[in-house]
Each structure stands twice: as structure tokens, then as C-alpha cells.
Amino acid sequence: MKVLVFNPQLCDGCRICEETCSQTWFKETNAEKSAIRISPLEDQPGRYQATVCNQCGECIDICPTLALTRDRHGIVRVNKKRCTGCLSCVGFCPILAMYIPPDYVVPFKCVACGECVKACPTGALAIEDLPKAPLTETEKRMKVVAL
Ligand code: SF4
Question: CA distances (Å), 34 to each of 66, 99, 137, in order?
């Protein structure tokens, strides 16, 4: 499955990735509308960490309306038509990588589009093809229903 991975050794904290993400998906430069968030490491001056979805899929089981599913690349996607904006996934995400912008009801997350990878001037970001995550309980049930 496709996953955006971050190399903290190479990041210089320029935040071009955040700008690129919000421009790509919301047509504005706004860090609150970026699916990748860069923050300084308090105990290591000059070093940064990134918060971004790792496509673990644990949110799929939390959504009461089945609005979260995996596509064929293993990327967890939000179905805007099914989402009721309950924000269960935003509160539940184990790494806090599901976001809700201030002026929007539907949450958003990284879908590994790769635009930030192209924009990062230091090569700190990459899209990697990792082994598929195990099926969640919801995915197992949906598979049985589809048989
Ligand atoms: S664009 Fe690259 S170097 Fe700049 S903050 Fe993002 S990951 Fe770090």
C-alpha cells in the first residue's frame, strides 16, 4: 500500500509541504488545511517531526456510517457523501493525523498523492509501497456481505 514517509534527518522545517498540500486540496495556503503537519522537536533544536496518516486503517472501524474505506492502493479515503461530520475518526486517530478544517464539516487526511514529495526541497518525503495492512473488522464484515 502507498504511504507517505518522512525522513527527519533531511527536513529543515521549511513547511513547503504544508503549503503544497493545502494548495493542492483546498486551493489556499493554510497550514490548518494541510494533511501533513510539521512541528519542531522541543528537545532537539533544529529538528522536526511530521504528523501524517500512515494508512493504518484503524479509523475504518470507528466510523458509524462506513464513510471510511480503503482504495485499491490501500489508501484510506473519506467518502464525503457518507460522512456526517461526527468527528469520531478525528478524535480516535491513534496518531492524530485526521484533520478537520475550521470552515468545513468533512474531515480530511493524507491520501499519498505525492505532491508534497515533489515540492520538498530536501528530499525529506517519499511515497513508499509498503505491505498491505491487515483487514479491519469492518472490512472483514464487508467482505462476507459481498460474497
Ligand atoms: S518541505 Fe520537506 S524540508 Fe520542508 S518542512 Fe516539509 S518535509 Fe521538511
Answer: 24, 8, 29
